[in-house]
Write a structure and sequence with these properties.
126 residues, alpha/beta
Length: 126
């Protein structure tokens, strides 16, 4: 079997709040609970396992490859909730999306400061 990513742990202040935010914005099924984790299943079999971090959360970056239709739906939910977004990771192009590699992309922050991104074409155009 080829090596595949199965899951990763996402440290947050409140695992249920963070998992709910993720599923609502991305349009995913409700999260489940497994041991100390609130688990969000992605369509490619990878899960994000949210865990309460009782110290300061160290923000990370999570990028999601989505279809054009999913991009429109997710982007619509960001705008409906008045969530700030940027076309670039340095946050110098607020209120814009990018068209890198012939697709579309946008960045925003989750309630814990994690930097989220959706793209419709993988980096490099592949």
């Amino acid at each position: 079997m080829p090596v595949q990513l199965n899951h990763t742990i996402v440290s947050v202040r409140d695992k249920h709040e963070a998992a709910t935010f993720m599923t609502e914005i991305l349009g995913l099924p409700e999260h489940t609970t497994y041991g100390p984790f609130a688990v969000v299943e992605l369509s490619n079999g990878v899960s994000l396992d949210f865990a309460d971090d009782h110290g300061d959360v160290v923000p990370r970056h999570y990028a999601f490859l989505v279809s054009d239709a999913e991009f429109d739906e997710i982007f619509g939910r960001l705008k409906e909730r008045s969530i700030d977004y940027w076309a670039d990771p340095s946050q110098k192009r607020p209120g814009e999306i990018n068209h890198n590699d012939g697709g579309r992309g946008v960045y925003w922050l989750d309630p814990n400061g994690h930097f989220l991104e959706i793209i419709t074409v993988p980096y490099g155009g592949g």
